[in-house]
Amino acid sequence: xxxxxxxxxxxxxxxxxxxxxxxxxxxxxxxxxxxxxxxxxxxxxxxxxxxxxxxxxxxxxxxxxxxxxxxxxxxxxxxxxxxxxxxxxxxxxxxxxxxxxxxxxxxxxxxxxxxxxxxxxxxxxxxxxxxxxxxxxxxxxxxxxxxxxxxxxxxxxxxxxxxxxxxxxxxxxxxxxxxxxxxxxxxxxxxxxxxxxxxxxxxxxxxxxxxxxxxxxxxxxxxxxxxxxxxxxxxxxxxxxxxxxxxxxxxxxxxxxxxxxxxxxxxxxxxxxxxxxxxxxxxxxxxxxxxxxxxxxxxxxxxxxxxxxxxxxxxxxxxxxxxxxxxxxxxxxxxxxxxxxxxxxxxxx
Length: 349
Prior knowledge:
Elements: H1 4-9, H2 12-19, H3 23-30, H4 38-51, H5 57-60, E1 69-74, H6 80-93, E2 99-104, H7 109-121, E3 126-130, H8 139-144, E4 149-152, E5 164-167, H9 169-182, E6 188-192, H10 198-213, E7 223-225, H11 232-241, E8 249-252, H12 255-267, E9 277-282, E10 295-298, H13 301-316, E11 325-328, E12 331-333
Parallel strand pairs: 1-2, 1-3, 3-4, 4-5, 5-11, 6-7, 6-8, 8-9, 9-10
Antiparallel strand pairs: 10-12
C-alpha cells in the first residue's frame, strides 16, 4: 500500500509509462476528452485508480469550455536557448492537463499575423511569448481579447502592463567583462545581438560599465552588432580579427555566436584560450562539450520556462500573481576558454 507522500510523487508521466501510453493519452483520460479507445481508456483508468493518482491544482481547475491548449510563440527552432526554456515549460505542464502548441514566426510579420488570427479565431487557454518585445505586435491584441499571456526573455520596463519573466542581463554583461578584465585583458571585443532590443542594449551597457569602472576607454571599433542567425558570430569575429589592433578577448552575445567565434579563430589559427579568450552568454546544453569548454554567463533557462508557465497557469485559473515582473539571477560559469592575455601580436593567418 502506498503512503500519502508516495501518492503525491506519482506523476502523469509515470502513469503513462505503466499503462504503456503517452502523457497526452493520460491527459485525455483524466479530462474526459475523446480520442482514446475504450480498452486503452480502461487500462489507463485502472492504473490511475491503483495508484490513487490525484491531479494537481491546475489540472483540477481546467474549466468547462477551455481548450486545454497553451500556445508558445518563438522566432525559430534553432539553438539551445529556446530548447532550454521549452524543457522548463514541459516540466511545468507535465501534470497540468494542458498541451503545448509551438509556432515559429521566423521574424516574418505575415506569419505573426497568421498565428494571431488563428489564436483569435480558434481557441487557446493562454500564450507564452518567447519573442523580443520590440518585435511583437501581439501584446496589445492579446490584452484587448482578454487572453492570458506571459512574455519570456527580453525583460521590458517594470511598468509594462503584462506579466514578464527574464534575467539580470545587465549584470551578466558586467560580470563577463569584469572577469576578462580581472584576467588582465584590456582590449575586449563584444559581439552583440541586434541593439534595437532591450536585452542587447542591457548586455552592452554592462560591458561599458565594467570597462569604465576599470578605467579602460570604450573603443567603438571593438563593438560589433550581430544578429540571431547561426554563424553570425563567425562574421563578426572576422571583423574583430582584421582590426589593426585586434582584441585579446571576445565576449559573444549568446552561445551560438560564441560557436561562430570559435570557427573563425580556428580558421585564423588563433588558439583558445592561449591567444584569445572567449566568453558566451546563456549556458546552453552544448557549451560544456565545446573544445575547449566555453566559459559563459548562465541564464536559468529551465527555471524561466517553469516559472513563466506556472504564472500563466495561475492566470488561466483566475488566480492573482505574486509579482507581475520576475527577474532571475545570471551567474558566471568558468570553464576553459578564458586565460590571461598573451604578449605579442596574434598569429593571424
